[in-house]
């Protein structure tokens, strides 16, 4: 039978090292309070059944606002003066559920991964407890009054993270037996002689402690992905070649247009302007202006690429579909993709050019012209 797993989140601290402002667990990281991010990350694991949050008595309104969109939480309980005291209050509250296993986690670590939880639960098959940790990589010095005094070996030393996983009854008993607060629950478990496994931690699972950590986390949570589409049509006229995605193909007709009438490159350009919500090719290069007559369309595409960079985005991918009965596009997609990749400065495996007929239906079916459509995705780094 599967063991039941509850999570206990300690969020009763004051965040004094993080500087002034809201208590750190309620500060938004790109609009989402840190506590809400931490809870979502834990609750994403299918094994986690009940979630008990421990809060500071002054924080009830902040807590209610932060978890307004999150359902399935146990009512919060108040914490103590120390982290250990807060954990104990949470464990006492969880007695009603009597889970087999409890994951004790800092509200201040919103970037935990499901993989860490998997590894912790696996380690509990052979140990009474388990926690993620990373080996110390720097030289260690004991200092005094700003001067180095005694070197310490880093051999065998680890930096502890949370969640820390235990059998519920064991860790509750360890807390009851403790005579003084400890920095974490592994310390209490070890003081009772429990075996505690070290599983692989992650640099991403850092604890937000200082203002610098908040600056880092704000940057890391920035996600701005935009998609734009483009569509264009050019009619055939007398001539002997067409230009599509910057590649000239011999043909029985040419395309009519103010510039070189590269219908495919125009749609890609429009997809980029669309993703930026910066109008379209006609607004940037009015057909009424003589200087664009016969112009090579890469000027237009380059302008859109310049705007993408100016707005702080990169192009993630471009997908273009050309709709015509002839010329045959398939044999030319390799140089077309290469040319779009060259102009936009992205890898060719991020550029797709494909074609379809319209089954002899409509204006493309009657070979009156060529239509094209494109999608582009932009990402802000
Ligand atoms: N914590 C708690 N009760 C306490 C102290 C800490 O529940 N009496 C929680 C914090 O809310 C945090 C976690 O324990 O989620 C780790 O503690 P820490 O990073 O030290 O947070 P704070 O104590 O809030 O910060 P500081 O030490 O800078 O004041
Ligand atoms: Mg603290």
The average pLDDT score comes to 95
Strand content: 25-35%
Number of domains as seen in the coordinates: 2
Which secondary-structure class do the elements indicate?
alpha/beta
Tell me the overall shape: elongated
Strand runs, count: 19
Measured between the Cα atoms of the first and last residue, the distance is 45 Å
Cα radius of gyration in angstroms: 30 Å
CATH class of the largest domain: Alpha Beta
Determine the CATH topology of the largest domain: Spore Coat Polysaccharide Biosynthesis Protein SpsA, Chain A
Q: What is the correct CATH architecture of the largest domain? A: Alpha-Beta Complex
CATH superfamily of the largest domain: Spore Coat Polysaccharide Biosynthesis Protein SpsA, Chain A
* Count of separate DSSP helical elements: 12
Weakly predicted, low-confidence segments: none
Textual characterization of the structure:
The protein is of the alpha/beta class and 381 residues long. It has two domains: 5-220, Spore Coat Polysaccharide Biosynthesis Protein SpsA, Chain A (Alpha-Beta Complex), CATH 3.90.550.10; 224-380, 60s Ribosomal Protein L30, Chain: A, CATH 3.30.1330. Helix content is 30%, strand content 29%. The protein contains twelve helices and 19 strands. The protein has helices at 34-43, 60-66, 83-94, 114-123, 168-177, 185-191, 211-220, 263-276, 281-284, 298-310, 333-344, 362-365, and strands at residues 5-11, 28-29, 32-33, 48-55, 77-78, 101-106, 129-135, 140-144, 147-152, 158-160, 164-167, 196-200, 224-238, 241-244, 247-250, 253-255, 313-323, 351-356, 369-380. The strands form five sheets. Strands 1, 4, 5, 6, 7, 10, 11 and 12 form an eight-stranded mixed beta sheet that branches. Helix 11 links the parallel strand 17 and strand 18. Helix 3 (83-94) crosses helix 5 (168-177) and helix 5 (168-177) packs across helix 6. It is elongated. The protein starts with a strand and ends with a strand. The mean pLDDT is 95. Bound molecules: cytidine-5'-triphosphate and magnesium ion. Cytidine-5'-triphosphate binds at residues 10-18, 25, 54, 79-83, 86, 106-108, 207, 209. Cytidine-5'-triphosphate (CTP) is lined by residues 10-18, 25, 54, 79-83, 86, 106-108, 207, 209.
């Amino acid at each position: 039978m599967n063991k039941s797993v509850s999570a206990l989140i300690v969020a009763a601290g004051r965040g004094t090292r993080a500087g002034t402002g809201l208590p750190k667990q309620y500060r938004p990281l790109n609009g989402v309070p840190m506590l809400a991010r931490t809870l979502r990350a834990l609750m994403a694991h299918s094994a986690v059944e009940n979630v008990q949050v421990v809060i500071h008595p002054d924080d009830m309104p902040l807590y209610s606002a932060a978890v307004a969109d999150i359902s399935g939480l146990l009512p919060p309980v108040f914490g103590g003066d120390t982290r250990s005291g807060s954990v104990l209050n949470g464990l006492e509250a969880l007695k009603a559920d009597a889970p087999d296993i409890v994951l004790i986690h800092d509200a201040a670590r919103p970037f935990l991964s499901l993989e860490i939880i998997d590894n912790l639960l696996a380690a509990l098959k052979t140990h009474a407890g388990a926690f993620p940790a990373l080996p110390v990589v720097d030289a260690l010095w004991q200092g005094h009054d700003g001067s180095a005094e005694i070197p310490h070996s880093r051999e065998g030393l680890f930096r502890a993270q949370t969640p820390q996983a235990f059998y519920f009854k064991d860790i509750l008993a360890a807390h009851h037996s403790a005579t003084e607060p400890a920095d974490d629950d592994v310390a209490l478990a070890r003081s009772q002689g429990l075996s505690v496994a070290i599983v692989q931690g992650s640099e991403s699972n850092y604890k937000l402690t200082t203002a610098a950590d908040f600056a880092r986390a704000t940057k890391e949570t920035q996600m701005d992905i935009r998609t734009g589409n483009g569509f264009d049509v050019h009619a055939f006229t007398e001539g002997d070649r067409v230009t599509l995605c910057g590649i000239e193909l011999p043909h029985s007709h040419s395309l009519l247009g103010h510039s070189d009438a590269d219908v495919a490159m125009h749609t890609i350009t429009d997809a980029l302007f669309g993703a930026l919500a910066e109008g379209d090719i006609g607004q940037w290069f009015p057909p009424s202006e003589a200087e664009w007559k016969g112009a090579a369309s890469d000027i237009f595409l380059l302008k859109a690429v310049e705007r993408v960079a100016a707005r702080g985005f990169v192009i993630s991918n471009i997908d273009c579909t050309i709709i015509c009965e002839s010329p045959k596009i398939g044999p030319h997609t390799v140089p077309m993709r290469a040319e779009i990749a060259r102009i936009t400065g992205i890898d060719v495996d991020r550029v797709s050019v494909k074609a379809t007929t319209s089954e002899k239906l409509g204006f493309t079916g009657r070979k009156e012209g060529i239509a094209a459509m494109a999608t582009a995705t932009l990402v802000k780094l």
